[in-house]
Amino acid sequence: MKIGEKLRGTVTGIQPYGAFIELDNGTTGLIHISEIKTGYVDNIRDQLKIGQELLVQVVDFDEYTQKASLSLRTLEEEKQKVPRPHRFTSDRYKIGFEPLANHLPYWIKEAKTFLEKQEK
């Protein structure tokens, strides 16, 4: 079992802190309440039922005890990924600080004029 792997399992127990899942490969895992869905979960029993079959993702695996930490939230977030808008950059123009250098004399003149008015 590897972290990030997606497995099928059945809910075998529900506690206030999470739900126990029997995976198809015979391993037992826990979905912590924070990993059930994005946002606040008031009552786990509103989200999951004993005997319910789920597709879960492994977020951690203890090889010594053979127990897995599982998540439904990571699968939910995968579905909702929104393409990020591309931000404008001038990197491809390779102009560096040239635009700033071109405006610097104007900004200095403007600042001097402002300060002279403040002194009067």
Structure description:
- By secondary structure, the protein is α+β, with helices and mostly antiparallel strands.
- It has two helices and five strands.
- The protein has a five-stranded mixed barrel with strand order 1-2-3-5-4.
- A hairpin with a 2-residue loop joins strand 1 and strand 2.
- This is S1 RNA-binding domain-containing protein.
- It comes from Streptococcus cuniculi.
- InterPro entries: NA-bd_OB-fold (IPR012340), Ribos_protein_bS1-like (IPR050437), S1_domain (IPR003029).
- GO terms for molecular function: mRNA binding; structural constituent of ribosome.
Give the arrangement of secondary structure elements.
Elements: E1 6-15, E2 18-23, E3 28-32, E4 53-62, E5 67-71, H1 73-79, H2 98-119
Parallel strand pairs: 3-5
Antiparallel strand pairs: 1-2, 1-4, 2-3, 4-5
